[in-house]
Amino acid sequence: MLQPKLLINGEFITTDNFVNVINPSNNQIIAQVPQINDPEAIHDVFYQAHQAFQTYSQTSMEYRINLLQAFANEISAHQNELADLLVLEIAKSPKDSLQEVLRTIDYMHETIAVYQEMINHPLSFSAQDLKTPNKTAVYHRVPYGVVLAISPFNYPLNLLMTKLAPALITGNTVVYKPATQGSLVGLKIAELAQKAQYPKGVINSLMTNARQNGVLLASNPYVRVMNFTGSPNVGHLLAKHTNNVHLILELGGKDPALVLDDADFDLASQEIIKGAFSYSGQRCTAIKRVLVSRQNHDLLVSKMLDQLKKVSVGLPADNPVVGPLISTQALEYNLKLIQDAQDKKATLLTPLKYELTNNLLYPVLIDGVNEKMRVAFEEPFGPILPILVYDDYDQAIKMINDSEFGLQASIFTKDMALAQTLAMQIDAGTININKASSRGPDILPFLGVKNSGFGVQGVKEALVSMTNFKGIVFNK
Ligand code: G3H
After folding, report:
1. 198 phi-psi bin (left φ>0, alpha ψ -120 to 50, beta other)
2. pTM of the model
3. Measured distance CA(289)–CA(86) in Å, rounded
4. Dihedral Cα 459, 461, 466, 469, nearest 10 deg
């Protein structure tokens, strides 16, 4: 049984309260992770991070770059161990787990490069720009203070580091709370930060009963930035309890794939199946609904079913596309959505097959879906894909936009002008033409609108999000 510790103000500590981490592949307890639940002790963590900010924020850019580089080197040196933990606690395949680690290291390197560029080129105004003789101005980017980072189970390393790296390199200090499933990697990261010699109090890994104490974290007066990835309900609840805090929220999606009549149907079906089912659909950017015209419905369905034959299902060790869902609760939720659709006369195009002992749900294609069915508008975070039929493009756009979510969308067509026109009508952060939705390449800005999120991530945008302007106006 693993019993990791929390890193608080430079010390590894444990407590009398524990939460179990479960292996989704067999529902066995694999670790007990300590929690800090006492409100005063929680407050103290933020106070220490605030104290650390007073000195860390004054350190040189070179020092912080070297620290982040050393941190990346530690992650690189422990890449297999980190990947193994991902397999164990979130049932990601070994191949995808290692890919997540490598992607994270790349992200850290990109952060260093973009930060150097940003610092070397502050926003400057000449006397000519200002149309005032003897007046010049320069606006630097400075850190806010204590960043509260809350990361999800599905990319426990990558979506943690996309919060930590931009916060740390710019001079903020961090208190982070990983998801319980994902906390083994999360807490391992604190050990590696310590090895990289971050000063005490700069990085703090705080596990707590989030249901009970989430609001306490968000409302702590020392928090200056909250960067949260998770469900809209929790994100909105926490955001409501912040006070003058800079917010970055990534809250999920219901990404549509809109297939137009002139699409390359081979490409569309291939991308849709990959986009919907990789990591069992447990990605905020997974394709979560397909819209096809009545006339091309049968063609697309038959090609999607062909593609589905290539989707492997199994336990992580076999590197399947679809593996165990994160919990039995997640599996049961997916089954409820399927049942609701069946009750309302939808048709399953694939046999319904699942295994409660290892949380496996085989891919489900649901046809004849209409907007009254829960699966048409809820986010399953599982391997189920509803197919909706439209009569014209206006109706398709309306169906897409009649959603609480607006993360990404895909349009499949050979007509780039039409793609551009429709993309501008879709209310979402990013529209992918002839490609499944996805966050990467990570250098791209990443954002959602409506209930999908608030604020922008990416590399440059994350650095901007973690810093405020400080202007100096010279008059001589
Ligand atoms: O789950 C949300 C992630 O940010 C999606 O990232 O598109 O690289 O899978 P991805």
Report:
1. beta
2. 0.97
3. 28
4. 130
Query: Distance, CA 440 to ligand 1 centroid (Å)?
Result: 8
What's the CA gap between 181 and 31, in Å, rounded? 10
User: Nearest 5°: CA angle at 285, between 283 and 290?
Assistant: 110
Helices (H), 78-157: 79-90, 94-120, 127-130
Give just the sign of the alpha carbon dihedral 177, 183, 185, 190: positive
The sign of the dihedral angle between the CA atoms of 444, 448, 452, 457 is positive
Q: What is the pLDDT of residue 424?
A: 98
The one-letter code for the residue type at 149 is: A
- Ligand 1 centre to CA of 283 (Å) is 5
Pocket test for ligand 1, best of 283, 407, 408, 443 (most atoms within 8 A of CB): 283
The parts of the chain modelled with pLDDT lower than 70 are: none
What residues line ligand 1, using a CB cutoff of 6 Å? Answer: 154-155, 159, 283-285, 438-440
Q: Where are the alpha helices (DSSP H) in 57-93?
A: 61-77, 79-90
User: In whole angstroms, how far apart are CA 269 and each of 254, 264, 300, 304?
Assistant: 18, 9, 7, 5
ipTM of the complex: 0.96
Residue closest via CA to ligand 1's atom 8 equals 439
Count CA atoms within 13 Å of residue 102 on its CB side.
7
Cα–Cα distance measured from residue 219 to residue 213, given in angstroms and rounded to the nearest whole number: 10
The model's pLDDT over 259-289, given as tens digits with 9 standing for 90+, comes to: 999 999 999 999 999 999 999 999 999 999 9
The yes-or-no answer on residue 191 being catalytic is no
Q: Ligand 1 pocket test: which of 151, 438, 446 has the largest number of ligand atoms within 8 Å of its C-beta? A: 438
Encoding tokens for residue 164?
Answer: 């930590």
Could you give the CA distance from residue 71 to residue 198 in angstroms, rounded to a whole number?
9
Total residue count of the chain as it appears in this document: 476
Q: How many CB atoms lie within 10 A of CB 44?
A: 14
155 CA to centre of ligand 1 in angstroms: 8
Name the residue with the closest Cα to ligand 1, atom 2: 284
CB 400 within 8 A of CB 258: yes
CA distance 381 to 403: 16
